[in-house]
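Retro notes (design track)

What went well: tokenization of the new backbones is finally stable.
What didn't: we kept losing track of which sequence belonged to which structure.
Fix going forward: every design gets posted as structure first, then sequence, in one message. First example under the new rule, 228 residues:
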């Protein structure tokens, strides 16, 4: 059984249709790159998975239909989201942000601090006082504290300094190597995606146009659907 299955998924914002047929499947422990140019439906697909937007078509997690569930119950089923733009609670401390949605499991304040030592050092600081990169680490740590089976990273390195970007990618590689967690990645760095992803799914105008193992992604395919 697949961990996540999307088949013929469509979605609209009012009268404006955004998804026209997204097909995507993920196995337990698999890292999938969701790719495509800006505005092609990647973030809308994430919103549909997390039930932040209504969608039609097959949408299942471990065989369970997600359409009838509110977003908080999808999270409880094991979906951890790191949204685009970080969205930490600015007036709460690092520790308070991390425990706000914590659920029992391997991910605790200690294991998150082991992954991101900066968070352990700044546990008592307000999130608003952190740098952009530290806030992104906090957003990832907060998602991990829900102890998900599927972690979704939506543009987790967008706008960050190169050194911080490398820290984030190092953490993603560690998660892949040391946990059985499935990860769905949206990012613009094809090089980094190719190093960590098992498979890629490419969207064009709200529809899946290519899906295969990452090793099958040729420069021609990348230039056609992903390049500027």
């Amino acid at each position: 059984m697949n961990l996540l299955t999307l088949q013929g998924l469509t979605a609209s914002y009012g009268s404006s249709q955004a998804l026209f047929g997204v097909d995507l499947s993920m196995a337990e422990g698999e890292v999938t790159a969701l790719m495509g140019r800006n505005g092609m439906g990647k973030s809308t697909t994430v919103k549909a998975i997390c039930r932040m937007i209504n969608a039609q078509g097959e949408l299942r997690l471990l065989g369970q239909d997600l359409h009838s569930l509110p977003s908080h119950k999808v999270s409880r089923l094991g979906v951890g989201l790191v949204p685009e733009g970080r969205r930490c609670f600015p007036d709460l401390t690092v520790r308070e942000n991390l425990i706000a949605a914590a659920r029992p499991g391997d991910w605790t304040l200690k294991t998150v601090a082991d992954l991101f030592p900066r968070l352990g050092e700044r546990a008592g600081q307000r999130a608003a006082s952190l740098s952009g990169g530290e806030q992104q680490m906090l957003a990832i740590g907060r998602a991990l504290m829900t102890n998900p089976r599927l972690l979704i990273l939506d543009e987790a390195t967008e706008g960050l300094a190169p050194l911080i970007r490398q820290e984030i990618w190092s953490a993603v590689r560690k998660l892949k190597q040391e946990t059985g967690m499935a990860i769905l990645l949206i990012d613009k760095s094809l090089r980094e995606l190719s190093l960590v992803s098992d498979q890629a799914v490419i969207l064009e105008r709200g529809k899946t146009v290519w899906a295969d193992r990452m090793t099958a992604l040729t420069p021609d395919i990348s230039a056609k659907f992903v390049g500027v």
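Added context from the reviewer: The first strand starts at residue 4 and ends at 13.
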